[in-house]
Amino acid sequence: DRDTDKKRIEELLEENMVLEIAQKQSMNESAHLGWELEQLSKSTDLADTRKSFVFELNECASSRILKLEKDNQSLQNTIQELRDASLTSRESSLKFVELEKENQQLSKKIEKLQNQIEKEKQSSQDLETLSEELIKDKEQLQVVMETLKADKDRQIKDLKQENDHL
């Protein structure tokens, strides 16, 4: 009986050591999962920062578009005034030629401004698309983070139950 008891005690001690090693490994895995969650959280913060940056860029682009449209309107008014002036002041052909040159320059400026407006609109659309993609990425990261957190909680619960059982 004593020999059987000694063998049983040795078996239980070995089993206890194996369980302690498994528990340490599980704790290490939990710590690693915690670290991964922290990294994901930092990534989410970065995505939030990028998102606010994109919105800021959108606002800047919008205000610049408005400014360019105002400049465009002002130049069109000036062109109209020059046309009116050129029609009414045919006193001198030199003045008319000068006005036509100025008119052509202003037309070129208007064309450039219209091109800039188109570029700004495209840039704004691109930023909006990027913003939507970043929001989707953030949502996906949150789902992954919640899944990891649930897995971690489940593992901790299982380990506690196993520990209590031991």
TrEMBL record:
Which key words are in the record? Coiled coil
Highest taxon of source: Eukaryota
Q: Does the keyword Coiled coil apply?
A: yes
Task: Supply one GO molecular-function term.
Answer: dynein light intermediate chain binding
Q: Name one GO biological process term.
A: cytoskeleton-dependent intracellular transport
Q: Which residues form a coiled coil?
A: 58-165
A GO cellular component annotation in the UniProt record: centrosome
Name the PANTHER family for this protein. HOOK PROTEINS, PROTEIN DAPLE
Protein name according to UniProt: DAPLE protein
Where does this protein come from, organism-wise?
Leiothrix lutea
Q: Which gene encodes it?
A: Ccdc88c
